[in-house]
Amino acid sequence: MNNERTDSFRIEKDYMGEMRVPKDAYYGVQTARAIENFPISGQSSQPVFTTSIVQIKKAAAMVHVEIGCLDSRIGNMVILACDRILNGEFQDQFVVDVYQAGAGTSHHMNVNEVVANIAIEMLGGTKGDYSVVHPNDHVNYGQSTNDVYPTAMRIAALQSSKKLIKNLYALTETFNQKAKSFDSVVKSGRTHLQDAVPIRVGQEFSGYAASLLKAAKGIEKASENLKDLGIGGSAVGTGINTHPEYAGKVVEKLREMTNLDLKESKNRFESMQSNASFVEFSGALRTLSVELIRIANDLRLMNSGPNTGLAEIDLPAVQPGSSIMPGKVNPVIPEMMNMVCFSVIGNDVSITLAAQAGQFELNVMMPVIQYKLLDSVLILTNAVRIFNEKCVSGITVNAARCQDYAIRSLGIVTVLNPIIGYSKAAEVVKESIRTGKSVKEIIQQWGLLSVDQLDQVLSPISMTEPRAKEVSV
Questions:
Q1: Whole-angstrom Cα distance, residue 461 to residue 330?
Q2: Which are the contacts of 268, defined by CB distance < 8 A and separation ≥ 6?
Q3: pLDDT tens track of the chain, all 473 residues?
Q4: Staple 63 to which of 18, 152, 249, 375, CB 3.0 to 4.6 Å?
Q5: In Å, how far are 316, 405, 429, 442 from 450, measured between CA atoms?
């Protein structure tokens, strides 16, 4: 027996038939069908993406009222309805799962229906009475999912990436500051995870800063192609059912609304067929992730210990590290960073596969591209901030330990190559490994250099810079 109260629903109809819709819902019949058809992940599209669609709806209504294509009474109510959503109301009404109808029609209609029903109420009507304001005829006038959805994807990605880039520049600056602070501390370099010639900790950290700066510039460069909007292309790029002035004017409105340097696409067919610009942008996020993984791993290794690892640096302790070992502290922030970056790389694979899956005038896989791309931006934005604030900014260096490693490194024999030759230097290394004596002790024992000469050639700082003049024997 069905105990659901019939007065808690309203009946709406589309060309597929009737459907029950919760009476208080601002969404309508097509959204209700999507809820029923796609109970997949329980995740709906990110608010920034929905906001971008609503901005397009507002801009379109403004333009259509101005050029006389939409009744001003209806159009102005659509604009006011969009404003209410943009001010934070009705966020719980956007309920379509991210894994939905191809091209994003379900989510697009979710927005159209919510905007329509808000406008209907403001005009004194009842939700679901689309004779007052219609989701397709009025809210969606002159538009198609096929040009609205990729345009919203571009705007959302550009808006979201602002904070990521800001956080990334802040992290880069922190690494630069650490590079200056640690510039006098010499440690053993390592290649192949084996002893190498000395390097200053500051030099090492300056490399991290430079690589992150390049990654930030790469994201900014990849953002440029996202600024070309195909809005106005309608269903296949031809602009069917649009006014000749619509495309240019709606891009102007969106530029003002978003404060982004948006442009009217020179070829709307390309903008609607191709998702290459999202692949490029995701690729820049992947590159950043690869660099962050590498840096996080270096920090974990340098922090290893405290008694049985490298212990060259100390990372801030932010929480207990074990449920069984008292006092254990783990490098949890770099570990978090690694997991985030692995997820971003996985998202990039999904985006790449989805982008190549388009056919002819449309890529129906846009919903997964949108979701994965914005997910990557979101988790990187937050992870970079936390990495900076709770890890990198609090790093301290164990100068004595670093100095000890630098002196004991077999790599320091490299500076003797121009003086005693590669072959003799290799013999020194073999003898050091065999006897456990330091390189310096063996050189003195064999009489290869005097104490003064050794002190000069094995000066820690001098071993980390080009040498203008070699020591003479």
A1: 32
A2: 147, 230, 232, 233, 237, 239, 247
A3: 344 556 899 999 999 999 999 999 999 999 999 999 999 999 999 999 999 999 999 999 999 999 999 999 999 999 999 999 999 999 999 999 999 999 999 999 999 999 999 999 999 999 999 999 999 999 999 999 999 999 999 999 999 999 999 999 999 999 999 999 999 999 999 999 999 999 999 999 999 999 999 999 999 999 999 999 999 999 999 999 999 999 999 999 999 999 999 999 999 999 999 999 999 999 999 999 999 999 999 999 999 999 999 999 999 999 999 999 999 999 999 999 999 999 999 999 999 999 999 999 999 999 999 999 999 999 999 999 999 999 999 999 999 999 999 988 888 888 888 888 999 989 988 998 999 888 888 988 998 888 888 888 888 788 898 875 555 55
A4: 249
A5: 44, 23, 18, 12
Cβ(407)–Cβ(438) under 8 Å?
yes
Same domain, 291 and 210: yes
Q: Which residue has the tokens 């296949």?
A: 236
> What is the rounded (10 degree) CA torsion for 126, 131, 137, 141?
-60
Residue 32 sits in a domain whose CATH number is 1.10.275.10
Q: Cis bond leading into 306, ω under 30°?
A: yes
Q: What are the catalytic residues? A: 322
- Alpha-carbon 325 to chain mean position: 35
**Count of domains observed in the chain:** 3
Verify that 368 and 433 share a domain, yes or no: no
Q: What angle do CA 39, 41, 44 make, to 5 degrees?
A: 90
Domain identity same for 211 and 327: yes
Assessment of whether the complete model's pTM goes beyond 0.85: yes
